[in-house]
Amino acid sequence: MSTRLEGRCVLVVDDDPDVLDSFDLALRAEGATTLRAEDGNQAVSCWRSRNPEAVVLDVMLPKRSGFIVLEEL
Question: CA-to-CA distance for 29 and 24, rounded, in angstroms?
């Protein structure tokens, strides 16, 4: 049985562990491979090295705001 996000890679960025876990669980349940980052610097580094197809991005992050991360991506 194929799932909707099978074969897709999604970067989830949030500094709240509960939110990060929730998004991660929901995306994996739909078949996605997930990458996780807890701050803006990790998000940019992960995006550059792994090139995910989609990003779920919080805007209020430590070290580099989500708005600045978005400009970088």
Answer: 8
Handedness of CA 22, 27, 31, 35 (dihedral sign): negative
Q: Encoding tokens for residue 1? A: 């049985």
Q: Which amino acid is at 28?
A: R
Q: What is the dihedral of CA 54, 42, 47, 72, to 10 degrees?
A: 90
**59: which DSSP letter?**
S
* pLDDT recorded at residue 70: 94
pLDDT tens sequence across 4-23: 999 999 999 999 999 999 99
The mean pLDDT values, 10 residues at a time, for the chain of 73 residues are 87 97 96 97 97 96 94 92
Give the C-alpha separation, 41 to 37, whole Å: 8
